[in-house]
Every structure is written in C-alpha cells, then in structure tokens.
UniProtKB/TrEMBL annotation:
Residues 49-176 form the Nudix hydrolase domain. Keywords: Hydrolase. Coiled coil: none annotated. This is ADP-ribose pyrophosphatase. It comes from Paenibacillus albidus. GO terms for cellular component: cytosol. The keyword Hydrolase applies. It holds the Pfam family NUDIX. CDD domains: NUDIX_ADPRase_Nudt5_UGPPase_Nudt14.
Amino acid sequence: MGIHEKNRNPALDEETLSTLPIFDGKIITLQVDTVRLPDGNTATREVVKHPGAVAVLALNKGKMLVVEQYRQPMHRTEVEIPAGKLDPGENPLEAAGRELQEETGYHSGDLQLLKSFYTSPGFADEIIHLYVTENAQAGDMALDEDEFLEVSELTLEEAYQYIADGRIADAKTMMAVYAWHLHTLTGQWH
C-alpha cells in the first residue's frame, strides 16, 4: 500500500466536525480542527497544512552534494541535501530536478524516487519525496533571491561525522545518508 492510499483502522478514526482557519502564509497554513474521537467525545487538533516538498540525494563521483544555509527556526546553519517545496500542481520529479539545479548548479536526467514520507504526522501533512541520482552533472546555480547557501561534497565517512557533530541534524538528510550507506552495502536503493 502506497503512502497516498488510505490506511485506516476504522476503530481509531476521528471524524472532523469543523475546521477553523488560523493563519494563511506563503508556505504553510494553520487550522484548528474539532474532531469526534472513537469514544464519542470531542477534541481539537492543530494542523499545519503544507504543499509538500522534494529532496535529492545527489552523488557526484562517490560524494554527496550538500548545501549549508541558515535556518531561522534553529537560529543556526544546517548542512542538508538540496530540497524545496512543491509549487501548486508541480510534478515532484520535475521539482526535484529544479531544486537540484537551483541550489547546487548540478542536474541529472536519471532521478529516481527513493521514498516519500511524512515529516511530522502528529501536527502537519507535509510529505517529502526523496529522490536519488548517482549521475549529477555540474552546471550553473539559480538561487531564489532570498536564498544564500554554500555547496559542498561529502564522502559517506564525512557525512557520518557531520551527523555525529550535529552539523547534519535534519531527518531528510540523515535518511539520505542512511539510504546511501545501505546502498553501499547491498548495491540496491531501498
């Protein structure tokens, strides 16, 4: 069963009774849902709605492309794989190619979907589609006007050291490193 297919246990379903919009921003919206619980009582759920995103594990000659940029919520820089949000109606595969090129200058004609996953299902509907390419080719960057970042390449050993040091601390990049490591052991992208 795929991530987008309904996977429900009717005994645990919550029925949405009402939705109160709270905030409508550039990237997210926030709403408060009133739900009926399985036992008949009601509760509220704060829900962040997000258009979805893509991320790319891009390998160039055995090294992973990463970007370092300032992340305001953490008040520090983070080292991450290239990633970005989906535009309305955008195909995730096309978005992955776009983000790879915009953020790193690299491009690839052989991106393949590795896995799609929810980032924080307890309060948000954001889904990230993680792609992989072993054939990233250098080109020209095309950063958004409000993006400032540095591109570098890491070996698998360096990536693990960045995780140990806390320089890589986001789930999508850690997942990409673990998938890359598994690939080196099995020869398969799982």
